[in-house]
Batch of 3 targets.
Target 1
Amino acid sequence: MNQTIQWADFQKVDIRVGTIVAVNDFPEARNASYQIKVDFGPDVGIKKSSAQLTKRYTKSQLLGKQVVAVINFPKKQIANFMSECLILGAVSGQDVILLRPDEQVDNGLKIA
């Protein structure tokens, strides 16, 4: 069941576009994942994320790809790694398909 939120609730979520600048294996994660660094531009900088994208994407496919992420959640400890943002994707069964702009945009642009 969907819960209705107020516009003010949505405005609290800082969702931005960034470019993946590094992708590493993450064997310590409970579920197959990558450790990813995303560049959100000069105002935000580079943030780290753990993402379960190994079923659909190789490391080389992800490198340089723009993604959409929430950047203002609290940091989350995942195994020995501190995740600083949540890369967004559509979940289809056990697979995750990235949400991303259909054209190249500046890193750090806010999603509205």
Target 2
Amino acid sequence: MDVGSSADFDAVVRGSRLPVLVDFWAEWCGPCRMVAPEIAKVAATHAGEWLVIKVDTEAVPDLAARLQIQSIPTMAVFHSGLVAGRKSRALPADQIEAFVRQSLLSV
């Protein structure tokens, strides 16, 4: 699911009963395009278990600034509205899944 505004992002992250994996990306970013199919695999595999959303940092720069996204791709895991983990680099699906699981152990 693509999120197009800070308000939409806040509503999704705060309102979700599921953990939320957020992919911060931009169209011009080669590694972001490379990781997109891996994010899609994770979303399909964990539908109903995790919510996976995408935020284009060029389209929502105020959110990127507020969350201090300084490099992309960056993935963040939110649980109960709070950041549980964050990682900045392209990863294959199995490592993304491991990152999410590890992040959720800390909450």
Target 3
Amino acid sequence: MSQTIDTNVMVYALTEGHKAERARVVVATASFVSVQLLNELVNVARKKLRLDWSAAGLLSNKVREAVGAVLPISESDHVEALRLGARYRLSYYDALMLAVAITGGAHTIYSEDMQHDLVIDDTLRITDPFR
């Protein structure tokens, strides 16, 4: 079964602490990530980790190499995110992450920030890997 991850799981995997090892295990099972994850990761690297552009780019490259497949965001994903956001009362960016996950054929998305065990359109389950 195909799986993907939300940005927060990737951030934990790149750090140290009690959630880091579990996050690394989950990241290793990901079939793909959304380019949105890379965008958000660079933003976190620049703002919270205070990395310069070069280091943030290297981090993004490292993640791309580790995960393999990176799915783009399409216009249809945008439209689907609007529907999902309204239906499930999600933030737009969470809905967009879910739309790409569904487009990619994922059955599970690991996220600490979204509602654990929520099933989207009988297709995609949100799972908090730290529960």
